[in-house]
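Hi team,

As requested, here is the filled-out complex form for the zinc ion run. I kept the field names the same as last time so the parser does not choke. Let me know if anything looks off before we queue the next batch.

— J.
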Amino acid sequence: MVGRYPSPSSSQDAYAPPRPQRPPAPINPTPPSANPPTAAPHPQVAPQLRPPPTQPPPPQTLPHNIRHTYPPRPIRPPPPQTLQQPQPPPAQIQPQLQPPPQYQPSQPGPHLTPANMQQRPATYSHATPVPLAKRPQPPPAYPHYQPQAPPLTQPAMRNRPSHPMPMRLAPPTAPLQTMSIHEQATPPPGMHTASITDSRLLPRPDMSPSAMATRISRGDPSPNPPSDTAPFTDPITGQPTPRMAVEPAACPPEAFVPVTNRAVRLCNSAFPMTIALAKKYSMPLGAVVQPLAKDDPVPVVNFGGAGIVRCRRCRTYINFSCSFRDGGRRWICSMCGFTNEVPSEYFSPLDQNGKRRDAAERPELHRGSVEFVAPAEYMVRPPMPPVYLFVMETTPASVKSGALAAAIAGIKNSINSMPNEGRTRVGIITFDSAIHFFRLSPGEDAEPSIFVISDINDVFLPTPESIMVQLDDCRPCFERALDMIAQSQIEIKGVVSAPSCLGAAVKGAQKALEYSGGKMLIFAASRPTVGPGSLRERGDNSYLGTDQERGILRPDSAVYSQMAVTMSKYQISCDMFLCPPPPGHYLDVSTLAPLMKFTGGELFFCHNFDAPKDSPRLQLAINRVLARETGLEAVMRIRATKSVRCTNFSGRFFLRSADLLSLPNVDADKSFAVQFQFEDSSVGEGPFCLQVALLYTTTTGERRIRVHTVAIPVTSSLSDLFLRVDAPATLNIFARQSADGMKDRSLNELKKNLLDKVITALAKYRQVCQTQYPAVLGSSELLLPDSMVLLPLYMHGLSKTPILSRDASGAFLYKFDDKSALAHSVDIMNAAETSALVYPNVIQIYPWPAGEGKVVKYPPGAPATVATLKSDVGVLIDDGQSLILWLGRAILQRFTSELLGKAVSGPVDPRYLSVELMRRGNTIKGPISQVYTTVNSILAARKSFMPFHVVPEGDQRMQPRVEALMTEDRSASTMNYREFLLEVQRRIAQTASRK
Ligand SMILES: [Zn+2]
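And here is what came back:
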């Protein structure tokens, strides 16, 4: 029987015995989130890319009731400024900048409740409380909306502080964003209007260079990050002031270090007090967590023999939001309110403010993220070593394409990068129509031997002790075996075709790992066709985008799900590297994917494997999987404040009980999402706390508990909630829901649901505004709170991704396997990746923009529209899933010459320019070195093995794909961004008129 971590009575996080009979847990999508590390720059359009017209066209109006029809998708959509035939009159968007109306301390203000600690400015000793009424008006949300507006009369509007006002100081006036696509009514007093005559001024992410860098690495910032502690200068007192959402109870505010927005990103930086309010809010309440995100170093705390201090009632780990009483002898759990005794070893007196005197020296009391060394009670066997079993297909499909050779090269090159403290174990299995177990022996001259199992319906394990061996002892034999497999391909080359017994090989690999647990890395190029788990051809691409596609996106058989559940029980994870050769055979990724989904594995999918182009990428992927920070035999539990239940978990795991996620493997690239549900009608006055605890074994053999704790204010005000939406995190939840929903619902239904959610929320917001600022609702303006100004763009972009759009699937030359692979990659995306997926980062990079000099920074971004793709520039397009360098016709030759270092005569196959750019790397001299540096930094921010293509203008295969990535443009079945905003506006008006 395999040793495992039983659940000690004192620890709910400890590993409980597996229950193999449990069916795979239903997975529900949830949103990722990330909070910007620095103050959020606000959306802004790079003016140099699209200079404003010297003479603005006269304002035109668009009748309220016009419905658009959409012509067939043109090869090249027209610039968004003009609508095509059949053509309604050009719309004019007139966002009005609104200095929010004068603050009126009347109720019901969009404030936190008086009980909320955020409303006590006196908590900071150096902050002089200032009556709110004396404060200047908050600045407009988006100063760039009014570039052509008359000079602003309020200085505050021109000098917006770089940080938004902290929650406890914010006057109740919401920073309203109004946009009118119709002729503007007379603006209410105090409100400035700006005519917008071109699409540059539609709401977009901030595209300044620094904001682009942040967007790529962490996602669009939230205007009200819950944990932003960067000091800012108080506009009233002129004092530098720290900011945070909730004051830490255990330590002085100035010592507090919050969780980064990569580790935990909440969908809203406030929490509704009651279930009734949550229903009115109608947007998802949840969080995106990336527990092992590569961030600042997390301090390690060892409680030694005293044991980790946890709440006796709810098992929460001690944290900064817990308060101390009775001179430090008792502590109050911030989740459940239980009063616990402080162990004598942990006692410290309190200061005059009730904070622990030793809080600044104890990371768990002043840092949101901390890692505890797990004592003996968290384990019953020694922590498992890193174990790697390589399972390789040796059919002609795999050999002839070069995928097998690339895999072997990748493994050999990564041996030194694998974690190895002397305990690492390895093994090799190959398969075609039979399974080949490699027996490895210690010694310099040891030769591998092979056992062939032909009876694939009844796989047994020959000599279990010599299949998985110590890497240090058997490395020469291990490398010789790899060479032997590479050699054998020569003999195989004559074979025309051979069946694959992938399912049986996975079973055999599972048997080899049952005794130790570990990671199996499967390299396959064909669909399993013989033995258990063989699959039929069913990927008829004509069904893509139709109502019939759901059936094909669902697994065809439960065999692999069942295998995965068994593997999870034995702490086995499964990574798959699927490389079907041209012309792209159907592998049935939908059916194979549960192997990764329930075991925390990685899915690498490369259609039409082209060795010269894709081998380097496959090798990078192998290296990344073997070398990155990884947690083994892990369990994760997410706890929330009493009365709130964590539910709808999304990601790669097996749900072992209602809220215990089993993760045989978890790594720095994996994000999860969770949603919150009320269990009672109210959560009390708060704050709302969330704690993510991941118990895992490091690859160096230590048992650790990574704990992230976040605390946010509770509010009874609906407008407060709307002001504190974290749009990127909310989008991540929506994207996961859409990717998951593809299997059960039609694309139209999914798209309609998305739109309905946004309409409902914005209509609700409009209602809130109506009660407070009736003046701003003169006509049919589109009102957007500061925090949600990008949400319509996100929803528009999501409906245009290949997940929800048939047009995009066609443009991307998607097949069923591609679509399945994309859907499964959404379940590990963080907020930065989903933001890029729906609105790609577009950067004009070649020639390098003037004025940037040699400083390595991102050039400014540009709108995702074909107008950006000019013939004399090179544009980098990052959608989080691939990176494209698009080169205009007039610039291609120059780029090629500069890259290859000589005058190039005749056509150069552009497919290999990307390989050449990356191969030359740092040795490149001249202007292209900046291109390389930027490409490299984006790849580093994503997974390093993300595909990178160089696409010349007009490329038959890739140009439609590039155009499909231009989110703002129209496609055959979707409207353009401006039309989408019109539609949102129309629907909101419709909703309002029904009330
Ligand atoms: Zn508790």
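Two things worth flagging: DSSP finds 25 helices and 34 strands in the chain. Residues 840-964 form a domain with the Severin fold (CATH 3.40.20.10).

Thanks,
J.
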